[in-house]
């Protein structure tokens, strides 16, 4: 016997995204009410005024992200875009991997995944450690207070990204500058567009150069394999490089900043990690769950009528699968609003779920392990240099984080 299927709720849909009014390290408090009272409900997107569905319970979010009847294609009319893209720009946009559906998505992901295995990423650990040590040494030489975002959170993953795709040493400075521009809240839209165009030209040139003269890096190995399979065009490989760029430094930089604040705000937990470094891998999984920085980035549009939690989602309707809410669902995690480094956070959805699960998750884990372990070992007295209430959180961005993080010791 199937559950009774209901239609849209009676209440007026709230504006989305919802406000993190209670605590900047926690998702909007309204999520808890929705999980209990209306786990699949309507919201109105602030950016467009379009009504879409949000899904809040862990099991339901997994269902949405794992369903073959849910599309990631940004260009479909019902897709819940959360950034203002004019129709003509969207129409001409070359879709990134995250916005593709099978079979195109399958072909491109298949080319990349073998290069991002846990074994390959562990092989990068000595280099990640070297870069981390260099920047913490520079921090110590400057003396506090310093901005942890600019001094550590941005440069480490951006330099590791350069190594990953084989950027020539004389071009590393350009990529570092670009990474810094992307976290600069004072940059104008025109400057941002110019920086992104310049980066696009760099990536185009980099792929062309590696097609002619491959090296020993991710892009080169993808290109070498593709000469046999002939599955990808030049622009497909550029798109993979672009995805690695944004996923490779932006995600990690945001977690480094927020994770540092979360640990400093939980001194007992931090003390245990300092005393027993073997706890760090579990602590990292817990931070990923607890922070859920890409909370609303996992959006879909239904391609068929689908029932989620007793609610009928019709073909063509947009859905936002809130992994930040799912990761605070007490049906799946006990005391989910507490940071607990001893928790088995297996099953968290911070990296998504299904065929769009983050391909760079293994790299992010190694980077976070190196950075957090080294930071609190070499600067055990690290503390915030400003109250949490005064920190510049990215409330205006799709991927949550900090614009700056003053610390001292």
UniProtKB/TrEMBL annotation:
Q: Where are the transmembrane segments?
A: none
The entry lists its GO molecular-function terms as: heme binding; iron ion binding; monooxygenase activity; oxidoreductase activity, acting on paired donors, with incorporation or reduction of molecular oxygen
A Pfam family the protein falls into: p450
Which domain of life does the UniProt lineage start with?
Answer: Bacteria
Q: Which UniProt keywords apply?
A: Heme, Iron, Metal-binding, Monooxygenase, Oxidoreductase
Q: Region Disordered: start and end of each range? A: 1-23
- CDD domains for this protein: CYP105-like
Q: Which Gene3D superfamilies match?
A: Cytochrome P450
Q: Which SUPFAM superfamilies match?
A: Cytochrome P450 (SSF48264)
Similarity comment text for this entry: Belongs to the cytochrome P450 family.
**PANTHER family assigned:** CYTOCHROME P450 YJIB-RELATED (PTHR46696:SF1), P450, PUTATIVE (EUROFUNG)-RELATED (PTHR46696)
Supply the name of the protein: Cytochrome P450
